[in-house]
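User: These chains co-purify. Model them together.
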Amino acid sequence: MSAVPSNVEAAPSRQPWLAEFLASERVSWLFVFKGLLAMYLAIWLAMWLQLEKPTTTLVTVAIVMHPQSGMVLAKSFFRAVGTLAGSAFGLVLVALFPQQRELFLGTLALWVALCAGGATLYRNFMAYGFVLAGYSAAIVVLPAMTHPTQVFDSAVMRVSEVLLGIIVAGVVSDAVWPERLRAMLRRNARAQFAHFLDFARNSTGGALARGEMEQAYLRFVRAAVELENARAAVIFEDPEARARSSRMRLLNQYYMAATSSFQSVHRLINRLQRAGRTVVVDALMQLYRPISQALSPEPAGQHEPSILAPRLRACEQQQPQQIRELRATMPDDPVTLIELDTGAALLQRFTSDLRHFTEVESTLRSKRLRGHVERVSFRRGNDYAGAAVAVLRTFLTMIGLSVFWLASGWSYGPVAMLLATVFTGIMATLPNPVGAVVNAVISQGVGMAVAFVITFWILPGCDGFPTLVAGTLPFLLVGLYLQTLGGKLAPFGVGYMVGLAFTVVLSNPMVYAPATFVNTVIAQLFGYGFSAAMFIVIPSLVGTAWQRTRHMRQLRQQVVRAATEPLSDDLMHSFESISRDLFEQVVAHTRPDSHASRDLLAWALTVHDSGRALIELRQVLAGNPVPAMVATATRQAVQDVARLYDNPDAARWQQADQSLSTAIRAAAAAQTEAHVGIRRVLLRLYQLRSSLRDDESALAAYQTPAEAAHAT
Amino acid sequence: MPPEVSIAGVLVPALLLVFLGCLLLMWLLDTVIGRLGLYRYAWHPPLVRLALFFCLFGAAGLLLLS
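Assistant: Joint model of the two components:
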């Protein structure tokens, strides 16, 4: 989007690998250059402004720097918020308990622990803000503990240093040859759009292999969550993207709706095919063909939403007529007609979702944004047990270190506590925290050793800023370049830079104290070691089988919510987004093609299918007057399906199946009075039951063959 | 405007308040410009944003505090 001459495209050369190598090196060295520029600018400004510890500014820049400017700004924003909140809490803490060290440290430990728990609940940059809120409170109050009167000055200094670092990093990364995240988001969004449309177009056959459908669905869900994550960072980078932010959410909402109805249609067709209902399957495929044709204009326009949207609209308008014609050709048998109508309703729903999706995409691609601002939210699904464990672990870590500090009178205790704060917070969100801590200790240890060399051999020889730059440049350059290499070296580079920036002694005025330096490093390593030990004592839940089971239960609970929560406009969307977010969390920690992953996919498909049908059923029931008998039977059926998902077993499956059948019979009997509402209720009920009886779904394990046998 | 303002007994540099006010103003301006899509006409939008902020902050600081 930006009019910056888009990258120096290497001229087509005879050695393509060389061009590729140069292009990737260009990106790497640009990042190194920007990182160095930001760091030295930050140090210079901090020195010039006479801030106490220019190192804090340096650490901030080192942590925040990222090749993409949107990431830097998002990280910076949350870092700033976290720092302000943490410092404010630090001040309150000192004001409350200036004399009681037990209460003081206990409250501090609680605050840090709650912040760490909050961090595990948010899986984007907000997590970082939470960790920082805990850390900033500690960094403000711990050094000032011995002189409570200076805590205010200390808070002002820390906040100034951090904010200076943030401003410098943000300005440098955004204004100097920015790598825009938005371009990436746009590319991904277009690829996702094209992928889904191609998939919908090419599955005309209606019968997709189950594995193929599952893989595609996995990709759809991932795309939806990734798009939301990218959107959350891009809005910091680009005001135009911010103006389109809610529209992008709306797009994602329709995307989720369209993928849901797409898979529902295919599941139904698959089931009918397996049951040998060829007449209905053929009819539904005939009905699908116009959609596929609407999606296939000339090849140039195949991914052009402004061309596709009107074609889909036309297709949608013709559908009722086509359905009437198809019905006329069908054998006059109630079961066949119900099956056909259920499939036709799903197809109509799919067409309408698809049209909305393409229309929103088309407005997003137009130059000027028209229309009003929509209110859409993407809800997250969280596991509070994982957060509670993180809170407990962090609290115990802090308390343990406090006790050790108070009992031993070790004057470097605060340093150890400070480092433990950061580690227990950040690492709590990772699946293998112990390994991560060990890696971080190694990389930061190297950084600290280099910091020792810089502080005691190089800095004493510097007599001004230019010599400082000349002396430290090679060491910083190595760290930044390592970060661009990817793989295992990138985290090593980050650890190295953070370790170096943390320990190198740049202060106003400069001090030369090797003993203090070594003591500080020992205390830091002790803090790391202690938090690693705590991760062994209270292991992380992230990615464990236990948490997976909990997530699965939560996923099933979404169906219960769909059946019981008060109906509102938001219910459907909150169902769609929470269930996808949960699904994505579990998928992230299961190996593809493992048993657990297949099991999960089967459940996710079933949950999305049934939850949606339940909400629609309730909406139809609320919007149309139906005879009391039908309404009661339907409500009973909804309750029984919810009970089944709450805790699936054979008895509940049977119960749900029975009450669905009762409701279907009641609706079918009342239907003679020529009523639109009842027909709709009947179709949803039928869809639910057919999904319940699906012998390839996750519920298959609970089905009792005798019941499934006398179908309808 | 005096060079320092007392807020709840804490002396805060007036320039800081001006800075915060300018940030707010800039955010509003940014939203409007982004909504209208005017940044498309700029060669380097982030630089324009930065320059715009400098103009706002410089003008406000000089006018209010000199």
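The radius of gyration of chain B is 15 Å.
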